[in-house]
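User: Okay, second chain of the day. Same drill as before: sequence in, structure tokens out.
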Amino acid sequence: MPLDGDTYTSILFELFYVTQLTIFLPDMITRASRGDFVWLENLLPLLLGDGSDPLAIGMHFSVICSTNASRERLDATLEANKSVLPEVRAAAEQQSLDYFAICQNWPSQGADPKGVSPAISDRPTVLISGQFDPVTPPRYADIAKETLSNSVAVTLPGGGHVPVLPFDPIGTCGFSILLSNVANPGHPDTACVGALRVTYQQLPPSIAGGPTPPPSASPAPSATPAPSATPRPSASPTPAPSAPPTPRPSSSPAPSTSPIPSPPPTGNGGTLPGLPNTGAGGMDDGDGPSPWLIAPFLALAVGLVPVARRVRRRAV
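Assistant: Same drill. Structure tokens below.
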């Protein structure tokens, strides 16, 4: 499959879905700038799988075409895209236009007005967002909060899409907040958010597939043993471990001597400590993964479904 700039940009965008991979994105970009795409070759088997698509595409388009594909929405999308970097726009805009083109001929009759109206409720509600979620960003929670009078919005630093899967520290924190809101409605325990920090790391040898790039002025690898079993890069080439070459979420992040932390926790009003509620925009997600997955690798695979779909489309 030929790799051009548009495909590469699109893949990076889609990787923001996956909480377990966001910490490696700076290293991926650094390696690509040096012409090193071995890491992508090692990820492709996971991205492509067996070529099947586990999502109900018909239902997906029925939802999207009923709620998000009006002519007014198309005009608004094109206008908003004018402020996007040209390189990103070239990579992503065509997919949006494809959606609108498909929806012109899709047998949707329009949504029930109740289905597109904001939810209005005073029931205890907790709104959990991931900092890097590219399709349901934290600002969506801010919008929902306007009509949910008894709600609490929390943004998890470093979180991707559906950051409540308890397979890494971020997801474990999000999951515990959900459970605490069930146990004590309206008063979720968000203490774990204040301890979360984003520490960017180099790819493990099983994915990098070669020597670690020379360290920068602020090296990411830790000088002390990590508490988890996640492979960690060394200062010199090391043999690939015997485990299959697929990224596995760590039970805890490896500490770093020179971490690149997220901003300190802040909050105001009903927004509890976490990161400021900012994030990238995008079309509403109609096919997010279920929060009830049975194994970490399934969570990772489901998060990468959009990547696989885009890669297969490019390959064709």
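The two ends are 9 Å apart (CA to CA).

User: Thanks, on to the next one.
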